[in-house]
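Record 1 of the preview.
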Amino acid sequence: MKQTTLGQLKTPISALGYGAMSFSDFYGPTDEEKSHAVLERCLDLGITHIDTSNVYGGGMSETRIGTFLAKQGQQAQDLFTIATKASIAAKPDGTRYFNNSLEHLESELNGSLERLGVEQVELFYIHRRDANVPIEEVAETLATIVKSGKTRQVGFSEIAPTSLEVAHAVHPVAAVQSEYSLSTRSPEMGLVQKTAELGANLVAFSPVGRSLLTDHPLDYDTCKELPFLQVNPRFQADNLKRNLAITDGFRQLAAEMGIPAAGLAIAWLLAQGEHVVPIPGTRSVEHLNELAAGVDVILSESDLAAIEQVLPIGWCHGDRYSAGQWTGPERYC
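->
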């Protein structure tokens, strides 16, 4: 597996990571056995960077990673570099809010470490920033957590490049996690550039467009059964029909190049900069193999032009989030 580095500490990680939200039931039911099979295949493929969160399945994702590591023996701590996140909280009535306080973040990280069965993670993110708290204060809080020894590096999810610059001036920000793919190109409006400038990674989640950029995209009947996709604009009936028709050209191009469509989507992301780290998620070992097939593909200028021709920037019908799903992420373009 091709290697890269993480953050200003330049910790060695695999160029392709794994997004462990799929160890919860977010995109459909799974179980511990299937999750462990995916982690086992990650090791076989050389995928060593695992991204999770305290809220994925209410801790289910971290627990399944922890039970897998527990079976590996003493070397478990060295098998993966692990990133986790916190700050999304809920009131007694279920209303979601964002808590960036030191007390909350330390408590949640302690819970994550217990579920994972490790004493330290490589990277700890603010999952969503509280817009009512100056980001300088949040960066100071993260610096305090680094000093505790429970994480080596820190990051943010879904922040603007301007916020990144301000936070980084207080304490090094190792990574910013953002949706980035051939269907979501907004990070190119400053985030790709700013992360590179500051020596941070851009960790790209949903790198295959929530299935649109694969050989087996989700159909409308399946989307209607998944709470996130049933309200997501890109997966509403008319938009999905258009998006599937457009991405047929991408699937055909991938077939002509002899690579799975998901692998081509990964190869395109890796071509956007050595600091870009895609973290696809899947419940399937077979799909993981398709994703990993793109890591060693070197795209020529003509390949990139051909991809741009079939999926020109702005091709995707529908916003990437519904109005409710936009609560939290920072808009900057």
